[in-house]
Amino acid sequence: IRFFGEKKILEGKKMVITAGGTVERIDPVRYLTNDSSGKMGIALAEVAQSMGADVTLIAGKTSVPVPSGIRVVKVESAQDMLEAVMERFDDSDVIIKAAAVADYRPLERAQQKIKKKSEEMTLTLIKNTDILQTIGQRKTKQFIVGFAAETENVEEHALDKLRRKHCDLIVANDVTQEGAGFGTDTNVVRIYDAAGLVDILPIMSKLGVARELLLRIAERMAKGAE
Ligand code: CTP
Ligand code: CA
After folding, report:
1. What is the dihedral of CA 127, 193, 189, 20, to 10 degrees?
2. Is any atom of ligand 1 closer than 6 Å to the C-beta of 132?
3. Could you list the active site residues?
């Protein structure tokens, strides 16, 4: 109802959106995760669907429920998320990676609850595969959008990620800014493409950011198809 009257500018587009934080198991009762609420990815899924897209939301841990009426694939770890994305990759027209993927996972996952022993313990972590980079390398027709959460040198880091991961657009947010980042209902973002800054958006709701971003995606896809 919120999007009544939204133009169907993404009609028929197959879209995969990732949201939330990944959960990296240490043992059966413990894990590593992050503060991602999933709100940005969920907002994108809702608005994209209202614009006519055929949306699949691949969701890690979220602190808010996913609205009914959205097709959701629940995943736990970064490895699960990679598999879920790759399964749908060939068929997708647009992939938006709003999820906060853990950069590292425990090297070993204990089958039993780890018992406390010595005064110190060391947990060895190993790097997770970069999902965005993996799909960027395999990109054929897909329009790929990444996110970058930064605390400093936002533009430099965002553009570096965009180039390394072969994204069409990257949405950067400076998480030190009031109203931006994890858990909030608002966001403050800048959008970049390979040539540099595309847009500076003022503070707005995550639904508003989703709408602005999806309008630009639709516009660019239409131009690319001309
Ligand atoms: N990403 C991903 N797979 C990973 C890590 C990140 O797909 N293993 C994606 C995120 O979903 C996001 C983008 O890459 O769309 C940027 O994530 P970010 O954490 O900002 O960048 P990193 O490349 O992980 O670099 P760093 O954390 O060192 O800043
Ligand atoms: Ca990271």
Report:
1. -40
2. yes
3. 34
